[in-house]
User: Fold this.
Amino acid sequence: MRVLAVETSCDETAVAVLESRETDGEASAVALGSALLSQVELHAPFGGVYPNLARREHEKNLVPMLKSALSEAGMLSASPAPRAAAEAAREVLAREKILAAAAVPFLAGTEPPDIDAVAVTNGPGLEPALWVGVNFAKALAAVWGKPLVPVNHMEGHVVSALLDETGGIRKIEFPAVALLISGGHTELALMEGPASWRILGETRDDAVGEAFDKTARMLGLPYPGGPAVSKLAEEARAGNIPSPVSLPRPMLDSGDLDFSFAGLKTAVRYALRDLGEISEDAKKGIAREFEDAVAEVLAEKTKEALSRARARTLLVGGGVSANREIRRVLASLAAPNGVELLLPRPELTTDNAVMIALAAVLKLRAGASLPPPEKIEADGNLRLA
Ligand code: KG4
Ligand code: ZN
Assistant:
């Protein structure tokens, strides 16, 4: 089965073609083509993602990403005669004029690729950004005459952990617990079957990636802050540099599986205010203390979720799952408890279209019913369950 997926939920414009196979009961998936353009440098001066800028960039970049993914997949072939069906795209893309201007001639001049379905992220994320991808995917599905599969972005992050190093799709035991940690989300979810979700706990305020980003800003580090804070923290660990302050472990004893990271960020602000001018070593120490606080809270809540659910599998997804300290702490809680820890390959931790295609493949395989394309809408607050 081949699925072409489109992802525009935040500041990455991504298109991928994934081929899945099944031999002797073993499933595997390989990206035939994958193209991704990050807008991170454009948004960096704003210290976060600026929705209307993201929207315009997606409009400009979707057709180049589509061309690049199709060409890598060997699926880009010119049409001998202009294809009238392409005009359908103009109607679907009425609200995205920049995108329509590039998409209609492209679709008129090329043959439909040999795929089984088009998939698209329909939420959660920045709604203006999501709409560009949703409308683009609707146009592709209409012009090519293919089914359209809406995919929850968070489901994409979870299934990204199912792809092993060699392209095999791991089989997991249910119930499983998923820890989703990204710039917009912090959730613990129970997975009772391939597409059956229940939210066990979530953040009451900031997402964990957001706390990394804001802490980075206070420490004078660039956006996105996660990798920058983590680098300083690692330097502090390597050099045995202590923190000049201790930070709270919010909600550790709350008795539920919810999180809160706004207070931690505020504690960093007060600490920096009280310390005044600080040395580079003090900054490293604070970064380390911040990362330890986050890792400890995530680990404790995850352990509790696994035990309440009696789950033997832990899937972790989202941009923050790239964090080495968090990976280490989660690994050390999983092994002694007989829990299998599944983490995404590093290139699949941040937003990408491969994970969206994979989620669509798994849905189609499970026989999920698809809504009619006209009913598919972008929803910035789309939930897993
Ligand atoms: O999943 P993602 O690419 O986008 C969203 O869906 O939000 O996650 C982006 C977030 C950013 O907040 C970024 O700072 C964080 O992931 N991040 C990290 C690391 N790499 C990325 N946070 C901590 N440590 C990292 N190594
Ligand atoms: Zn994401």
About this structure: The longest strand covers residues 26-38. The chain has a mean pLDDT of 95. The pocket of zinc ion (ligand 2) is lined by residues 153, 157, 182, 318-319, 351 (CB under 6 Å).
